[in-house]
């Protein structure tokens, strides 16, 4: 129930009282199961991580496996946007969280990197996914709140910017104009995710080539 509340309204909407009301019980009754909201959120995180399939079927090599990890986490965050709000907190040591971590480390276990570097590679990949998902969610939220998409917002301001800036910042105007025209595509956040993921994986490839086997 708490997960459904968070999916609809974010973590701010999750209170001991709101969850208790949905369960048709008293808030004090809920406290007999969870000492507080922090512990409730920890259980929520572990529960949604249990949705992951944790399978590398049809993944040939570390790159395909790590790409699977990235896409699975991307999809999970888009299903549960509140996950970006808990990023950076101390890890929840629940069974699904531990199983997820162990499985995802296996994506690059056999490339010859030391254990600390393996952890850093996974952390870097997941940090990128989280940032890209946050950017997409922010764009969706802003468009819903204002009724104006990012593409329409920039298009409306482009003539005024060109008039006021004149010949100044020609590089910014040229590149920004090209990017703005390209970003009119509604799938831009997804495209940015795929582009960024390729760059991350290319960087890891260099690391593997230099220090792996």
What is the topology?
Blueprint lengths: L1 H8 L6 H7 L4 H4 L6 H13 L12 H18 L3 H4 L8 H11 L9 H32 L3 H16 L4 H13 L5 H24 L2
Helix pairs in contact: 4-7, 5-8, 8-11, 9-10
Shape: flat
Strand percent estimate: under 5%
Mean of residue pLDDT values: 85
The portion of residues assigned to helices is over 70%
Radius of gyration: 21 Å
CATH topology value of one domain: Tetracycline Repressor, domain 2
SSE ordering: HHHHHHHHHHH
Structural class: mainly alpha
Question: What is the CA-CA span between the terminal residues?
Answer: 47 Å
Full CATH superfamily name of one domain: Tetracycline Repressor, domain 2
Q: Treating each run of at least 4 consecutive H or I residues as one helix, how many helices?
A: 11
What's the CATH first level of one domain?
Mainly Alpha
Under the CATH scheme, the architecture of one domain is Orthogonal Bundle
In terms of per-residue confidence, which ranges show pLDDT below 50 for 5 or more consecutive residues?
Answer: none
Work out the number of β strands: 0
Characterize the main sheet. none
Protein described:
This protein has about 210 residues and is mainly alpha-helical. It has helices at about 1-10, 15-20, 25-30, 35-50, 60-80, 85, 95-105, 115-145, 150-165, 170-180, 190-210. It has a domain at about 60-150 and about 185-210: Tetracycline Repressor, domain 2 (Orthogonal Bundle), CATH 1.10.357. The protein is built from eleven helices and no strands. α4 (about 35-50) packs across α7 (about 95-105) and α9 (about 150-165) packs antiparallel against α10. It is flat. It starts with a helix and ends with a helix.
């Amino acid at each position: 129930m708490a997960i459904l509340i968070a999916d609809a309204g974010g973590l701010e909407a999750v209170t001991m009282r709101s969850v208790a009301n949905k369960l048709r019980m008293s808030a004090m009754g809920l406290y007999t199961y969870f000492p507080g909201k922090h512990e409730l959120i920890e259980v929520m995180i572990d529960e949604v991580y249990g949705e992951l399939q944790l399978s590398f079927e049809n993944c040939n090599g570390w790159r395909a496996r790590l790409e699977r990890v990235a896409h699975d986490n991307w999809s999970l965050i888009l299903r549960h946007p509140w996950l970006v709000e808990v990023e950076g907190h101390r890890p929840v040591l629940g069974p699904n969280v531990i199983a997820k971590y162990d499985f995802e480390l296996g994506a690059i276990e056999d490339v010859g990197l030391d254990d600390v570097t393996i952890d850093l590679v996974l952390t870097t990949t997941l940090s990128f996914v989280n940032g890209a998902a946050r950017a997409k969610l922010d764009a969706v939220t802003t468009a819903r709140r204002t009724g104006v998409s990012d593409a329409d917002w920039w298009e409306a301001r482009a003539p005024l910017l060109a008039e006021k800036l004149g010949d100044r910042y020609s590089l910014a105007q040229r590149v920004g104009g090209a990017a703005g025209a390209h970003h009119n595509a509604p799938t831009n956040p997804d495209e940015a995710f795929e582009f960024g993921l390729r760059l991350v994986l290319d960087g890891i490839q260099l690391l593997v080539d230099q220090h792996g086997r």
